Amino acid sequence: MNLLEIFWDDAPYVVLAIVVVGTWWRYRYDKFGWTSRSSQLYESRLLSIGSPLFHFGSLAVIMGHVAGLLIPEPWTRTIGMSDHLYHLQALMLGIPAGLATIVGVGLLIYRRRTRGAVAIATTRNDVVMYLVLVCALVAGMSCTLIGATHFGELHDYRQKVSVWFRSIWILDPRGDLMAHAALYYQIHVFIALMLFALWPFTRLVHVFSAPIAYLFRPYIVYRSREAADKHQLVGSVPHRRGW
Ligand code: HEM
Predict the structure, then answer these.
(1) 91 in a domain, yes or no?
(2) Which of 18, 47, 161, 188 counts the highest number of beta carbons within 10 A?
């Protein structure tokens, strides 16, 4: 077993341990610093374009990763999907998703550098996080683009990277597969692991407390004072349905 195989066998567990213990530590000692540290008050125009592009792009990238890493290759073959068709659909969805995310993060960084108040609110921690994030995104996009031009076995991540990824969760790590995957996949995943290890110590922790319930909460009924005054009794004010 060479060093690279040992690395790919063990690194995921080291990173997982950092994420779990780091998140616990952050919650225990910095509960009130657990925030995305929104800068919307300082600048909102560029944010309103960059943020949705980045966040919706990321969601699509995550869904692509879930499908590509968790669904075994024989399964898609069984339902009659050829490898060519699989890679074609991965490209059609992956490239726009990756591009939207990269353009979005580019806009957010441009805003951080050019809008004075936002620049002042940017810490060294943010700079490191953005740097690793951008490297992970660019390396991922390069994988998709280079992989698209080579359909050989070495370039089919579903035979090596995806099997390695699944092997981690059944505690039977296949570092040998990852060590023999094309170098650009190894670089991308290495940077991704660095990003995961940084996660609990940066503003990225806000992902763990995203207010998803907010999307489904009952709407709030606002009644204007004028209307209430006109009808004297608040309860008798006619109102339209909220939905
Ligand atoms: C262990 C974690 C990860 C693994 C194993 C992994 C693996 C891969 C693979 C194999 C591809 C090529 C997909 C294709 O050619 O269709 C890819 C693409 C990509 N990855 Fe990752 N990745 C990981 C984490 C991340 C993270 C954390 C980010 C973002 C910060 C990221 C961003 C991207 C992007 C933007 C692309 C190109 C667009 C797309 O295919 O959606 N990846 N990744």
Answers:
(1) no
(2) 188
Q: For residues 194 and 136, give the distance between their C-alpha atoms in angstroms, rounded to a whole number.
A: 9
Could you give the CA distance from residue 230 to residue 193 in angstroms, rounded to a whole number? 62
Tell me which residue has its CA closest to atom 10 in ligand 1.
157
Query: Are the C-beta atoms of 148 and 87 separated by less than 8 Å?
Result: yes
Residue 106 has pLDDT above 90, yes or no: yes
Residue 69 lies in a domain: no
Q: Is residue 61 part of a domain?
A: no
Would 175 be classed as within a structural domain? yes
Question: Annotated binding residue at 180?
Answer: no
The answer to whether residues 167 and 174 touch, using CB atoms and an 8 Å cutoff, is yes
Cβ 94 under 6 angstroms from ligand 1 = yes
**Would the pLDDT of 115 be above 70?**
yes
> What digits encode the pLDDT tens for the residues 173-190?
999 999 999 999 999 999
